[in-house]
């Protein structure tokens, strides 16, 4: 296999690139206080929420774009984005639970049926299109256990005390530029509350879909696992194939109370742009969880989409004996760029964290791991194990690692391992000689490489993720 | 089964094979010997389809088809197997998974249904016995951390799994101790039938004590300069290649 053949491109299929033809209610482009008032009014929010948004907006105006990431970000005109777009339900529907057939068809096509009897066994879904939640399934089943699972917009109206108590406590609006923007204009996302001692009987998931042109999506998700509870949560995302870039700036906050456990998995498959690097989603995400005593938070992410990914799901290990985990596969192809990793902040005693990051770069893409392990003064016996591996396919791509360790406690034990490897022509020849096509061989090698992380995903999604990895690599070898 | 006519191949400007002629029929065992750098491994690579080498002249037919027109994987699926001199490590991919894909690709090529998990596991158990391969190895990543002997046994295990029409074994005996050599060679012999053929490339006569060749060819500077029966190997062991090379020059 000649090197030039390996890097030769053929058209790769992004099978979620379709657009739903549905009337959309949007507001004009641009961002100012008036726009924020409109968003808040559309969502029929209470006054306190509007005040929070305005406060965040005023702060955002004083902030500068972060430039430290290993990313080449074209200038984004924040006044040229539509900050609210809602698919119009065609006719007056009989009940809250009914969904416009066109929307239902869209989610069917994405493999996310909104009828409970057709859904994947044991998975409750909150389906979000553009700025609004379309439907949340299995709400009654979950309510029997006292679990609240709904859109954040509903939660603000129906559970204001819970939202007030937790929203913005892990990621305050002052945190960073995109978090501030999100706090000002966030549209929809999920809210989930697991009461004390309850083990959530099904997987909870949110599916984010961008449909309308020219819009930005500002997901806001808040997950609270009360003492001794457990939940496994999964989010997926796709968007139509378009020549323009669209912005997705999300904030996810997780509170894991004493003795509770949260597993948060992401399969991110936003439209990555075409093979020339045109179009694709800009994905700027702040995800962070707070762990109290004996709590455990595990992030698993499979990142294959987006033109640009800027994302660092983190754990603040505040309580003694709490555990944070981060398992990541980030794959970039063509002209995609990713700067992703995690922060593990050890504050409590005997806190432990584990980082396993697997970067895969193909085409002309750039893939960076950025991580911070911080051990505070009082975090006696903190332990961290980090492993970050990079796999290169072809010789036009880049892999970078920026691990940082900041320890203020001499009892900390921190380990870091890193490898860089390349799929060699010898490996491909060996596989070919056993009857495997080059595409299958690359798929096998990549899935083998990512296995440790994929194994952390819930079963059904692990299979999906495997297929996705193979699909995203299509055309990366000749 | 295999018919090689006037095969020329080069890497860059350098011609390595300079007119190879070779006929291999079903049921036969051929040994190819020759001094270092004579083109033995290149011949194996070219037949398997490694495009590091450019075929500049000649024809090769395999089971009645033009081999040189076929992709590497189609040659393999048709039943051409190359036992590698230096088997490659593939981290993260278990032997079992690797073989499952390989076996099923071959079956698909023949229009057969893929094996069920049960059938496949039974097949693995049976075939790993051929080379006394530790069954634990099939759960490990392909060749990763295998000893030299295990890697070679593993090549023959894969040969047993894929049941090739033509097996080309490139210095499968190199780096093996006496016991491993016996196991590997006995394995190859067990797999030999009147319906398949084996070409062994080797430096040493000792392999041929186990795998008894019908023909022995001497490759020198990209050409087969002499062919004989198994006694030729013994003579080469004793007297070296010089007498042949001198004869060839005259």
Give a description of the structure.
The complex is a heterodimer of chains A (478) and B (250). Chain A is globular, with a radius of gyration of 22 Å. In chain A, a hairpin with a 2-residue loop joins β3 and β4. Chain A is an alpha/beta fold and 478 residues long. A 10-stranded mixed beta sheet of chain A has the order 4-3-7-9-11-13-16-18-20-22, with helices on one face. In chain A, strands 5, 6, 8, 10, 12, 14, 15, 17, 19 and 21 form a 10-stranded mixed beta sheet that branches. Chain A has a two-stranded antiparallel sheet with strand order 1-2. Chain A contains 11 helices and 22 strands. Chain A has helices at 3-7, 33-42, 47-60, 101-109, 139-143, 152-158, 160-166, 177-185, 425-433, 438-454, 459-472; strands spanning 24-26, 85-87, 123-129, 132-136, 148-151, 190-194, 203-209, 220-225, 230-238, 245-256, 261-268, 280-291, 296-303, 308-311, 314-317, 323-332, 337-346, 352-361, 366-375, 383-392, 398-407, 413-422. The model of chain A is unreliable at 1-12 (pLDDT under 50). In chain B, β1 and β2 (14-24) form a beta hairpin. Chain B has one domain (2-249): Rossmann fold (3-Layer(aba) Sandwich), CATH 3.40.50. The longest helix of chain B has 15 residues, at 95-109. The radius of gyration of chain B is 18 Å and the shape is globular. The model of chain B has no long low-confidence stretch (mean pLDDT 92). Chain B contains 9 helices and 12 strands. Chain B is of the alpha/beta class and 250 residues long. At the A-B interface, α9 and α10 of A face α2, β7 and α3 of B.
């Amino acid at each position: 296999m000649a090197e030039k053949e390996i890097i030769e491109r053929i058209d790769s299929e992004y099978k979620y690139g379709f657009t739903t033809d549905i009337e959309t209610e949007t507001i004009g482009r641009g961002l100012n206080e008036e726009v924020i008032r409109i968003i808040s009014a559309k969502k029929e929010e209470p006054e306190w929420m509007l005040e929070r948004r305005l406060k965040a907006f005023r702060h955002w105006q004083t902030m500068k774009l972060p430039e430290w990431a290993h990313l080449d970000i074209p200038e984004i005109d924040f006044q040229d984005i539509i900050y609210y777009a809602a698919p119009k339900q065609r006719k007056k529907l009989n009940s809250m639970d009914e969904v416009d057939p066109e929307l239902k068809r869209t989610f069917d096509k994405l493999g996310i049926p909104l009828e409970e009897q057709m859904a994947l066994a044991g998975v409750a879904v909150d389906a979000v299109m553009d700025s609004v939640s379309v439907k949340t399934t299995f709400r009654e089943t979950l309510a029997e256990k006292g679990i609240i699972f709904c859109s954040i917009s509903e939660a603000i109206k129906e559970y204001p005390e819970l939202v007030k108590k937790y929203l913005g406590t892990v990621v305050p609006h002052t945190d960073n530029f995109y978090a501030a923007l999100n706090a000002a204009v966030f549209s929809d996302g999920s809210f989930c509350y697991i009461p004390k001692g309850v083990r959530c009987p099904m997987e909870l998931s949110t599916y984010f879909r961008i449909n309308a042109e020219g819009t930005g999506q500002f997901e806001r998700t808040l997950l609270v696992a009360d003492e001794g509870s457990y939940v496994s949560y999964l989010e997926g995302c796709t968007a139509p194939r378009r020549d323009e870039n669209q912005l997705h700036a999300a904030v996810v906050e997780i509170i894991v109370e004493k003795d509770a456990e949260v597993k948060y998995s992401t399969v991110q498959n936003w439209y990555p742009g075409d093979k020339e690097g045109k179009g694709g989603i800009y994905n700027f995400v702040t995800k962070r969880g707070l762990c109290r005593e004996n709590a455990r938070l595990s992030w698993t992410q499979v990142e294959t989409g987006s033109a640009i990914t800027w994302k660092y799901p983190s754990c603040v290990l505040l309580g003694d004996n709490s555990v944070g985990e981060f398992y990541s596969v980030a794959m970039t192809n063509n002209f995609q760029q990713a700067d992703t990793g995690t922060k593990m902040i050890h504050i409590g005693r005997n806190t432990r964290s584990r980082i396993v990051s697997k970067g895969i770069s193909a085409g002309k893409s750039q893939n960076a791991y950025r991580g911070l392990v911080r051990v505070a003064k009082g975090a006696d016996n903190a332990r961290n194990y980090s492993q970050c591996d990079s796999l290169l396919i072809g010789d036009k791509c880049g892999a970078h690692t920026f691990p940082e360790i900041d320890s203020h406690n001499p009892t900390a034990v921190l380990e870091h391992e890193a490898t860089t490897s390349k799929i060699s022509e010898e490996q491909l020849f060996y596989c070919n000689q056993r009857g495997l096509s080059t595409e299958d061989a690359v798929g096998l090698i990549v899935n083998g490489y990512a296995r440790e992380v994929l194994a952390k995903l819930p079963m059904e999604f692990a299979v999906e993720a495997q297929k996705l990895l193979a699909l995203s690599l299509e055309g990366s070898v000749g | 089964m295999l018919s090689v006519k006037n095969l020329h191949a080069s890497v860059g400007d350098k011609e390595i094979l300079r007119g190879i002629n070779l006929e291999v029929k079903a049921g036969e065992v051929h040994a190819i010997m020759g001094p270092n750098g004579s083109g033995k491994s290149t011949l194996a690579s070219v037949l398997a389809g490694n495009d590091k080498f450019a075929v500049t002249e000649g024809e090769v037919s395999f089971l009645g088809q033009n081999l040189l027109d076929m992709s590497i994987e189609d040659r393999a699926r048709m039943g051409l197997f190359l036992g590698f001199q230096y088997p490659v490590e593939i981290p993260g991919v278990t032997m079992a998974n690797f073989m499952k894909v390989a076996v099923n690709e071959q079956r698909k090529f023949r229009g057969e249904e893929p094996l069920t998990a049960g059938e496949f596991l039974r097949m693995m158990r049976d075939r790993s016995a051929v080379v006394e391969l530790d069954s634990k190895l099939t759960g490990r990543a392909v060749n990763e951390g295998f000893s030299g002997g295990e890697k070679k046994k593993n090549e023959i295990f894969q040969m047993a799994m894929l049941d090739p029409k033509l097996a080309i074994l490139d210095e499968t005996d190199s780096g093996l101790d006496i016991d491993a050599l016996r196991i590997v060679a006995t394995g190859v012999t067990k797999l030999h039938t009147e319906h398949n053929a084996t070409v062994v490339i080797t430096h040493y006569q000792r392999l041929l004590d186990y795998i008894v060749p019908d023909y022995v060819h001497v490759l020198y500077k990209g050409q087969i300069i002499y062919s004989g029966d198994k006694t030729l190997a013994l003579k080469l062991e004793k007297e070296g290649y010089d007498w042949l090379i001198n004869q060839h020059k005259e």
